[in-house]
Design a protein that fits this description.
single chain; 410 residues; alpha/beta; N-utilizing Substance Protein B Homolog, Chain A; Alpha-Beta Plaits; Rossmann fold; 3 domains; four-stranded antiparallel sheet; 11 strands; 16% strand
Length: 410
């Protein structure tokens, strides 16, 4: 490969865009901030950027977070300042067949040597797929032969999937409405999902502002229907968070009955209230779990109970790639302890004859099947029966990795 190809400037991103990405990467890897919040701030800080520039900032930043370890290995160092992040950006562009930029920060780097090193196939899988060694070992131990394709799929950009809000519209009308606003979609599955054919900022559409849809991955959309809530029931979403599944439950209940959304973080429930107002979901009541009495007061009262528990988030690395750099081996055991504790304590809210779904966005059996079996073998799990369970790996259908189990209480 001749050096002349890399000396061309044609197609290099403007320095202003590179600077925005470099600063975003510094905030993520040096300051330890979450990638989604950093990108949101960066885009807000560049209000004059056009749609293609904004897309470059967001997509490049996410891609570089995904492949951070490999890029650092090719650079030969862990970045400690802005100049190093500029160099990582150049490596990213190089590996995607784009010109070597004429930036002064790149002085002393040899693009031919970097490309030759990148083309070598003898590097360890953890380096090629850019993941911590301990996490590669854990995935390999738990998923065995399924781990390599799972890991590779988790490094692909996630599709944008919408869930049509059936409290306000049907899928056909929303698809037409979005097309009129320049957003092309295709249906997925039998009910409410639409997948964008070209990535766009759907939050600026009038359809979103009117509450006609929510952004929710297709795998996540399968959880609420598995619980099978019916209008008029009392349903509890005990780990509601921002409320994506609670809003889906409200739509399935046709706004009839009582839907109680619980979470230990009150600010997340505040966000749910705003989303519920936009969606027209009027049967949702939020209650922060600020003491054990909140759960005790709801004992044996729920017809349906959703436990979408905190987890490693390994099934959604495609949309939250910085998770793999923030996770620590020592936190996995505390996560599993928390999951089992929630199963043991929160399951008391389900009445006899009711149904419960345990769900995670993890691909690891130790957070999924193993937890369900441990619960069923415990004193708290007596009287529960496993009706069905489903494991979704990202390479299966191209959507997020997920696990969900339906349990019934005698």
């Amino acid at each position: 490969m001749s050096l002349s190809r890399f000396q061309k400037n044609t197609g290099s991103p403007p320095p202003a865009l590179a600077r925005a990405v470099a600063q975003a990467l510094g905030a993520i890897f040096i300051d330890g901030r979450h990638a989604d919040k950093v990108i949101e701030f960066t885009l807000r800080d560049n209000p004059k950027a056009g749609s293609s520039d904004r897309a470059f900032i967001a997509e490049t930043t996410y891609d570089m977070v995904r492949h951070y370890r490999r890029y650092c290995a090719l650079l030969g160092k862990i970045p400690t300042d802005d100049a190093h992040f500029w160099q990582l950006i150049a490596i990213h562009l190089l590996l995607r067949g784009q010109p070597w930029p004429p930036w002064r920060e790149l002085e002393g780097l040899d693009p031919v040597a970097i490309q030759t090193q990148a083309d070598a196939q003898d590097a360890p899988r953890a380096l090629l797929e850019s993941i911590p060694d301990w996490l590669d070992e854990l995935g390999s131990t738990e998923l065995v032969d399924a781990w390599p394709p799972t890991l590779h799929a988790l490094n692909q950009p996630a599709q944008v999937v919408l869930r049509v809000n059936t409290l306000k519209a049907d899928r056909n009308s929303v698809q037409k409405r979005l097309a009129e606003e320049g957003v092309e979609t295709m249906p997925e599955g039998d009910a409410e999902a639409l997948v964008l054919t070209v990535r766009k900022n759907v939050f600026q559409t009038e359809a979103f502002k009117k509450g006609l849809f929510e952004v929710q991955d297709y795998s996540s959309q399968l959880v609420a229907p598995l619980l099978a809530p019916e209008p008029g029931m009392r349903v509890i979403d005990a780990c509601a968070g921002g409320g994506g599944k609670a809003l889906h439950l409200a739509a399935l209940m046709q706004n009839k009955g009582s839907l109680i959304a619980l979470d230990t973080l009150a600010w997340k429930l505040d966000a749910l209230k705003l989303r519920a107002r936009r969606a027209g979901a009027s049967n949702i009541e939020t209650r922060p779990i600020d003491n054990r009495k909140v759960i005790k007061r709801l004992q044996h009262s729920a017809d349906r109970l959703l436990l979408d528990v905190p987890c490693s988030g390994l099934g959604v690395l495609r949309r939250n790639p910085d998770t793999k750099w923030k996770l620590k081996a020592e936190t996995m055991e505390s996560l599993r302890h928390l999951q089992q504790s929630i199963l043991q304590d929160y399951s008391t809210m389900l009445r006899p004859g009711g149904q419960m779904v345990y769900a995670t966005c993890s691909v690891l059996p130790s957070e999924n099947q193993v937890q369900v079996q441990a619960f069923l073998a415990s004193e708290a799990g007596q009287g529960f029966q496993l009706r069905t369970e489903r494991r979704i790996l990202p390479q299966d259908e191209g959507y997020d990795g997920f696990y969900m189990a339906l349990l019934a209480k005698e």
